[in-house]
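DATA SHEET
Item: assembly model
Revision: 1
Owner: S.N.
Input lines:
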Amino acid sequence: MPQMEDGQSFDQLEPSTEGLGGADTPLRVAIVGSGPSGFYAADALFKSDVNVTVAMFEKLPTPFGLVRFGVAPDHAKIRNVTGVFAKTAAHENFTYWGNVTVGNDISVAELREHFDVILLAFGAQTDRSLGIPGEDLPRSYTATAFCAWYNGHPEYRDYQFDLTHETAVVIGQGNVAMDVARVLALPADELAKTDMATHAVDQLRTSNVKHIHVVGRRGAVQAKFTPKEISELAEIPDCDLIIDPADLDLSEADAAELNLPQSKTNQRNYDILKTAAETGDTGATRKIYMHFYKSPAELSGDGGVEQVSLEINEMKGEPGNQWAEGTGKTEPLECGVFFRSVGYKGVAIEGIPFDDRKGVVPNVNGRVTDGDQMYVAGWIKRGPSGLIGTNKGDSAATVAELLGNLPNLRPAPGRDDAAVTQLLADRGARVVTYEDWTKIDAAEIERGKAAGKPRDNFTRIEDMLALLDD
Ligand code: NAP
């Protein structure tokens, strides 16, 4: 019986030499998106006993999604997963269609004309907003845009972040908030050694930010960051991590929550915060202040954000399911630059079913509800949660569902790569192949050598294409 890597079996599946997925008729899957969930889905397909080809469509010339544009530059080891993805891309039945925007260069219906299955894995493109007065003031930014900017995402290349003020406020206590706080606090010389985009290093070098307030609406026990990330905040050179010890007093519900089997990460977080609270202020140049039980109520300022009004919260609910409720009491916090970091949100592509409120594609076990032979994996399936590796099991589950349904799938009418190539050429799209990407990759590594960093990424699509077409 064919086995998925994670031990799942395709019990329902009887591979045959006939029909879709048999020796004569490979199952043609178009994956939309080249981030971790797309690559893990391709890998799961190739590891099955089904004869399958994968065409991966990506709107940027470069693959790997948030591994390139989301992971913080000082977390180089996390980026090493691209080596695993490169092995998948080396499969003889894999093709990469970079620089092609599905829904713009080619419609979903046109894809369906030539591919038996469409597997959506395009992640969450934007972020959630707070919906509070003053959120759109100058110097109020989104963490997602800041991360994309310092990672050299072409669409964020020309964003401006005003870091001339001394006090920054970051709302949210997930790992993205940790990344933002750390990048604001790390010495520029440390950042210059990473693959952070050069334009971002240059601007962070001139940053005046000294006080970074990281604000969580719930308590230390409920914080969403993971132990490694909170530890890193405590280890930044010439920077103090400051926590009010009173915020670490445990309520009865908190103590019970920490004892729940699922609270191991929270317990480690809590221990790290406790140690940091004991160290306190050592007079370092930069300081990161952790705030708990506070929600932003309003941003105000003359010509730009100068102050955040924070509402004090109290906790309600049972251990393991506690939420924050505003008390109506507020306190002001000085704020020269503001980052909201309250989660990513998916955006629809024309021609697919979409739940606007949740920002996901409605699905049952990865099979798109009301989709025509359409499947979904990753953040656009389940929402923006989990680490990169979480997507491996998630994508494998979608692929198991897809292959379990194989006997019911109809072959697409066209099934012709040459027709897709022609259609894209007619529309003036310059398709970037995987071989093209390897040239971009090699050039970025070479540029990095000159700049004394692991790689110096291109941040403009025209520069990538010029390299290929010279
Ligand atoms: P996240 O982990 O979901 O954290 C979102 C934070 O925003 C939480 O603290 C949440 O508080 C808060 N929040 C949400 N709505 C809010 C509101 N209206 N007002 C105030 N606070 C609000 O999201 P993320 O940080 O964007 O990360 C997304 C995923 O990527 C996570 O799974 C994360 O672990 C992962 N990631 C991992 C790494 C890494 O491995 N180093 C780096 C970056 C991201 P509540 O808890 O109360 O909801």
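QC remark: The mean pLDDT is 95.
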